[in-house]
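Class, look over these structure tokens:
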Amino acid sequence: MELTDQLRAIRKNWWIVVLTLLTTLGAAFAVTARATPEYESTLTFFVAASSDTGTALQADEFAQRRVAAYAGVLTSGRLAERIVAGRDLGLTPQEASARITATPQPDAILLSAVVRDTRPERAHAIGEAIAEELGPLVQELERTDAASRATVSLTVISGPTTPTSAVSPRPALNLGVGLLAGLALGVSLAIARQVLDRTVRTPEHVRAATSLPTLSTITVQHRRRRRDAARSDGLVAASDTGSPRAEAYRRLRTNLTFSAATHRMQVIVVSSPLAGEGKTTTSCNLAIALAESGRRVLLVEADLRRPRVSQTLGLEGAVGLTNVLVGQVEESEVIQQWGPNGLFVLPSGTLPPNPSELLGSDRMRALIQRMRQRFDVVILDTPPALPVTDASIVAAHADSVVLVVRYGHTTREQARLAVESLRVVDAPLAGVIINGAPLRSAGVAYSQNDGRTMPRTPASPPPRPTPAGPTGPTGPAGAAPAARSAAGPGAGSGGAFLPAPAPDGGATVGRGADRGPTASD
């Protein structure tokens, strides 16, 4: 992981750094506030030795060896008993010994004692007791060494000091340590989260996991848009033509158009690795964007398990694809027009017990061939590719297959497995769409409306046509006339509309591609 990647991880996960920093600072403050203040009194002894038979050098060497031994005497129970005896310290010998720390300095022939206590006057009193009792105790111990004729003396050269301020806790030091520890821990966690994150977030992740290009990165809807919009279905409204989401779908439309050089774009299958990744919303918005460019578009609700297209577009979906495939109705009776721009929808219809068999049937193949003759683009919204095989079955009839993954939700392994399952049936994979990306990750600063300005006044919503007739469901009063009015002169008496075949025998994407990319592309 390079330095730039680490900096990017820190910037993206800044909240982890801040949260960790606040936590460690809060812990340091709590420890400091709850700690009992402690005071220190220090004193230093000079250790001198003399010998009747040795030289001065030998006496110094003897004193150096004795300094380490006297450090043990300072913390011994015998000295502690002398300290508490006859003094009102309120301590036992063991408690007094625990408050004393010895620091020998053999090279300098010095011995330091540090007394730490929660009461400054008691720390000073213990220091004075050490100064009084250590020398006599050492003389007593040295007299027991009959073989030695050396004389040792301990002289207090400093202390005991009188504490005036607490040495512990130290707020500045504790908070400084908490600050540094919080920064180090927060940065480590931010980088670790980036390293351990196996979800799809960038086109590089898509390329590494699937070897496919990223056709577009669809941003999330801005909070103000979600609050002000009249709908919550995820569709790009007519008033949002300058929003990042609308621009992303136009970019998707353009990329699909120019990908027709390698993959035909007349029949497009839209799927995803798992449910909840936005394939239905993507299918609907892509169909709307293609219809706005002047193409005749049919959106087929081919998810016969959990259909959502009809609900998203506000259409009646009780009769549709399933009923056509079993021969109950003709497609001309159940295809509905949505909006004024040439978008037509074939709902799912009755949910069947055998969706895979229906989608792989000869009738489904024949239906797609008929739709090729009547529409410029046919988009099939299919179930997720990993849980069921429906998408792979339908992909056999498609010219292009588009996989939708959700930013920060779909793992790279899931994307890879979905692509592999589609490649098993030689599906013509065109690319991947990253859905639900944050605004800052999609580079949308140049758009004329980034979602933070007030939208234009929306136009009146299109009528909600409902197929009517002998074989279709009956809609509310006035729905069928409205549908026929929206469909134009080609509408049938059933309230649905099916364009006539093109004079050349087959309409393909060339209708839109021959013109070249439009201004909106």
